[in-house]
Amino acid sequence: MATQHFDLIGYTRVSTNGQDAQLQRDALETAGCGRVFEDKISSRVTACPGLAEALDYLRPTDTPCVWKLDRLGRSVKEVLTVADGLHDQGVSLRIRTGTLTGTYKPTGEGKFFFVMMAAFAELERDMIHERTMAGLAAARAQGRTGGRPTVMDTDTLAAARARHAKTKATPRSPKHSARPSTATYRPATPEPCNPNRILSANHGSPAGQTLIR
Question: Whole-model pTM?
């Protein structure tokens, strides 16, 4: 038996388990949503598995439905990302309550909604860039250039430079400056003893001793 697929797909989201999504679910079921996906996640968590499952479930003929537009994301950036993805898939979006109540299609009059979302996305990127550049300029004006912190302060750096200059000015001793010799040394071969060179003690050597020359 084939699995039944509903054209109107609902999605609800609450921040904690202590909040109840029944109000959103009732509104979506009243609108005709045959299947509703749900997320109960903290605002500090970026992943929304229920929303990801709902978007993956969609077909080109489906229409996702939310209670309010802010249920699609906790920030403007997240909402814009979802809206841009729906537009790329050619999927409509229905919003049940709020200022933007209605159904928006990626073509015709509904296309204005997605164009507006894209314009907001570009505006937000420009504002983030301007705030970043303004923050960097303010930091430079206060003497903060950013980057990794300096390991040595001014006094330590001056002392290190003084020691370096003193070391360069001190002449090196000859034993340190002389280059090592490249000559090869071999052990001397002992000369064989010649009996003719042995002198008797009677020729000047003390009695009882022999002298070898």
Answer: 0.52
In a 10 Å sphere around its CB, with 0-12 CB exposed, 13-18 middle and 19+ buried, how is residue 195 labelled?
Answer: exposed
Residuewise pLDDT in 10s, the chain (213 residues)? 445 556 899 999 988 766 778 899 999 999 999 899 999 887 677 788 999 999 999 888 889 999 988 888 877 778 888 888 888 888 889 999 887 888 888 777 777 777 777 677 677 667 878 888 888 888 888 877 766 666 667 778 788 888 888 777 666 655 555 555 555 556 666 666 655 555 544 455 555 454 444
From the list 15, 75, 200, 205, the catalytic residue is 15
Q: Which residues pair with 8 in a beta bridge?
A: 63
Annotated catalytic residue 15: yes
**Cα gap 14→151, rounded to integer Å:** 47
Q: Which CATH class is domain 8-125?
A: alpha beta
The whole-angstrom separation of Cα 158 and Cα 144 is 21
Query: 65 has which bridge partners?
Result: 10, 94
Task: Kindly report the backbone phi and psi dihedral angles of residue 152, in degrees, each rounded to the nearest multiple of 5, phi listed first.
Answer: -110, 135
**Cβ partners under 8 Å of residue 133, min gap 6:** none
